[in-house]
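[step 3/7] fold_predict: job queued, chain A
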Amino acid sequence: MMPSHDFKLRVVAIDDDEQHLKFIATSLSRENVVVSTSGSPRDGLELVRKEHPHLVLSDLMMPEMSGMDLLERILEFDPGTEIILLTGQYSTESAVEAIQKGAADYLTKPVDMEKLEQRVESLLLEVRRGQRCLELENELLENSQFAAMVGHSPAMLEVFHRIRRVAPHFRSVLVTGETGVGKELAAQALHRLSPVASGPFVTCNCSAVVETLAESELFGHVKGAFTGAVQDRIGVFEAANRGTILLDEVGELSLSLQAKLLRVLQNQEIQRVGSPAVRRLDIRVIAATHRDLQSMVKEGRFREDLFYRLSTVHIKLPSLAQRKEDLPLFERHFIKRFAEQYRKPVSGITRRAQALLARYSWPGNVRELENVLGNACMMTESETIDVADLPEYIRERKTIELRGEETLLTLEQVERAHAIRVLQSAGGNKVRAAELLGISRAKLYRLLEDSALPEVGVAAPENLRQEPD
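[step 4/7] structure written:
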């Protein structure tokens, strides 16, 4: 970031009166103010797109396009620009219309240069303050990062504190939280702060493990153990020896696999499929899930002894809705990251876009926010993300309308209704909808199993049960 004393205020003046343009440029140009001019409103619009000025001075009455039309077009793609309209024929109605449409001021020709210079000085001071605020926000972002996690809300500071205390000593940890809250990042932080940080960190997605091959995937096999076993192969537990294994979505494991996992946790040993040899391990296990394992224990779908073994230490991550105060930090973090990744000069987000993101409920949590801002950074033509750069389902967000006495919905109903709205926004494409929501296709299918939703007044799209590619 450039220091404030090197900063230059960019001004674009647009007027079909060449003499007036020269007067404006001569009067305002100085060491820290650069003035560009255009005698045509269309050329001036292109100049604004190219220069991204802090201030635009535009005549009200011009051929081809009026200053009022020019005002609207500039604010469409760069709402942060200060625009002052100049006119030789002042009218109260026109002034009010200009201010309502977003003009910063409305001045009469001949322009009072002393007043205009004061306005430029005031804008210089305001932009410098904005730069300083940006510097402070970046400092706050740097100071609010823990491993690869971001947050300064009380809920996240407590999570960071627990990870610091647990990491040096744990053998098994249970990390829970909704889909997309950052459970894998928490697991990586635990590993990095543990005594085995230099060892391997291996992730096993339990929901993707095929039941018939699960034992081989987890514990490995020897040559000839089954058809197709043409050579010895280690499993994920052996791969993580002297390190850490993350069992992601551990609640998806079958009861038979849960029993085998319990033995590994108790004895720190495994047997490859087809081999009687017992292999000792030195391993730390982190189990993660978005499910309520205690309820699953009561329903007989998760072993009680395994649950107590895993949850000796329990770290619960809050949803994004429970820590909305971290939203500005995430916005700064993701915009900076994606601007560098896409090599685009995107530097911020407008207040009105921030307000819209703050009102949204974020059922897909941080992963959904990451997808939204990544897409916005890629698609925007401005240096600042605005409402138009956000997905349609957020721009046109509507609360679920309740009928009659219905005042409460279950979490399942809300999630399903939202999934259907996002699917409609994605034209029925389930792959894109899952990406926007920050969830797996498998979870999206589960949410859409009962798509009628008469109780919440949301109609399923006609192509809901089709599978577009």
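[step 5/7] annotate
The chain has 19 helices and 16 strands.
The radius of gyration is 29 Å.
exit 0
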